[in-house]
């Protein structure tokens, strides 16, 4: 008899085994490369616009988001994602990709109900969990700083 | 200068490797991985650790999504010092505004210009 448990066991031998070492190397190279591009942009903004390193972070991230959104539009970022796995999902470019691809995918449903409504379908979890955790940590830290 | 690029590459790459291990070994979805990373960034910043990583690795620490959690908390704490409890709400999106705004704007423009594939 097929139950949920032995079904999961039975299909295991037919599932492709992820090659962990290879995947990690690919994620390392692509993720590292994206950060190197970010470092180049940071230095560019520091040299050309006289930003401090802290101030240069925001324009750097915005530029990376612009590049990732365009690459998503051309269908290139998805190909990078298939190759790199977490290497392209973890940098902020992956956040931009999830926003742009969700918006693009639902374009046929119209600008309001399609693009705007679905834009944060994937990226919303990042904002929700980021905000909730920052709230909790922030309140704890504020209390600790006030009373200790 | 060269060492800046080197450490950005190594640290940024290693953060992605942690993400890949969570995907392959712990079978998390990409959404779970990035959500955990944002929470991790906020918690690390709560102990003032993330700033040290940025000092060391530059873009290797500011480009991965963990820095989103760090920026949320940083903005919140800066306003909390001025306005107390309410400041946490005032400041939470202050530093992340550029990232969220440009993601919305560029995502919208891309959705208008390009045709969906597949």
TrEMBL record, chain A:
Keywords: Membrane, Transmembrane, Transmembrane helix. It holds the Pfam family SpoVAC_SpoVAEB. The chain crosses the membrane at residues 27-46, 58-77, 124-144. The keyword Nucleus does not apply. Coiled coil: none annotated. The keyword Glycosyltransferase does not apply. This is Stage V sporulation protein AC. It comes from Tenuibacillus multivorans.
TrEMBL record, chain B:
InterPro entries: Spore_V_AE, SpoVA. It comes from the Bacteria. Pfam families: SpoVAC_SpoVAEB. Keywords: Membrane, Transmembrane, Transmembrane helix. The chain crosses the membrane at residues 6-26, 33-50, 56-73, 85-114. This is Stage V sporulation protein AE. It comes from Tenuibacillus multivorans.
